[in-house]
Amino acid sequence: MSDEPLKTTPLNANHRRRGARMVGFGGYDMPVQYEGVLAEHRWTREHAGLFDVSHMGQCKITGADAIAQFERFVPGDYAILKEGRQKYSLLLNETGGIIDDLMAGKPDHDGLFVVVNAGNKDEDFAFWSANLSGDAKLKILDDRALIAIQGPEAAEVMAAHEPLLAEMGFMDSARLMLFGVDCYVSRSGYTGEDGYEISVPADQADRIWDAILEDARVKPIGLGARDSLRLEAGLPLHGHDIDPNTSPVEGALTFALSKSRKERGDFNGAERVLKELADGPSRVRVGLIVKEGAPAREGAEIADVDGNVIGKVTSGGPSPTLGRNIAMGYVPPAFSELGTDLQVIVRGKAAPAEVVAMPFVAQRYYRKPKA
After folding, report:
1. Please, where are the H alpha helices in the chain?
2. pLDDT band at residue 1, thresholds of 50, 70 and 90?
3. Cα→Cα distances 63→85, 114, 133, 182, Å
4. Band (314; pLDDT cuts 50, 70, 90)
5. pTM of the prediction?
């Protein structure tokens, strides 16, 4: 634990005024719940949940060399990404480990708009400051807040404020005037549900948060439900399910490796990544259903049916949607086939588990019909 005082987002006083229970997360004082994790999880799945994600890092990378410089450290093809689109990617170190996972897109003609994780943002920004060359420039947007609205009613809620938002599809990104101010908006999120992430001027965050919550279909949601939602969606949490020692292949994130970049092999850590793609990694992230007993939390051992320890759980807990205990963790590839019977060791007791497909709960992103 750090002795440094917790930082606050522009919405901190608003959370406290609404009765949120606050905890330290990523160096910030954040709401873990309002009325309860289970109720908030279900509300988001059924209606629309509003999340303060202002602790995350926002920046722009601009200049004629911005894309080429950015691509040195990520395995995605951003040169061919169209304006108005974004994609998930991975900031890699020289050994192919994941420094951070991120979203980067082109909401306008001015380079890349990038969102990184709260606990890693200082390291990420320092990395880019030290490594970007040519005329590529990093601009940290520390004067902005970030709000996410997620759930099946999110699109209708936001279309009432700006009809253009209903026309966006999953991973669309735009810069537009919303609530009377300059905003970056993407149709994305980290819950598996449809919704939007909205970057707003920090001094307007309180007003905009309250305006969205005037709609009865929306409730504020804390980090507790955000975590259970992303777990059900099979999405990794950096520092837990992935870290600087984990490769994209081990992390089951090969969808973030663009075909053209694999062919060129011109990104940080490409040697390891390409070798693992060809020969297989030593371990791989899998989803587990825990069939009996208590939830298998982070750190619980995974064993084969004979009791031999073969891996560890990296995220786990009850699934409110499924009514079962679920987990993610790493096992050797020989034990990663769907339907493989395993065990998890919880409080010294072995409980049966089974490898299942992820996401555990179907993702409901909105994809525009093809013309």
Report:
1. 12-17, 37-46, 66-71, 121-131, 154-159, 205-213, 223-232, 259-264, 270-279
2. very low
3. 18, 14, 10, 21
4. very high
5. 0.96
Sign of the CA dihedral 56, 220, 297, 304? negative
Residue 122 Rama label (left phi>0; alpha psi -120 to 50; beta) = alpha
Return the H-helix or E-strand segment holding 137.
strand 137-140
What would the pLDDT profile of 128-166 be if each residue is shown by its tens digit? 999 999 999 999 999 999 999 999 999 999 999 999 999
Instruction: Say if CB 256 and CB 76 are below 8 A apart.
Output: yes
If you average pLDDT over residues 38-48, what whole number do you get? 98
Distance CA 73, CA 277 (A): 18
The one-letter amino acid code at 114 reads V
The counts of H helices and E strands in the chain are 9, 19
> Can you name the residues that pair with 361 across neighbouring β-strands?
none
Q: Where are the alpha helices (DSSP H) in 85-237?
A: 121-131, 154-159, 205-213, 223-232
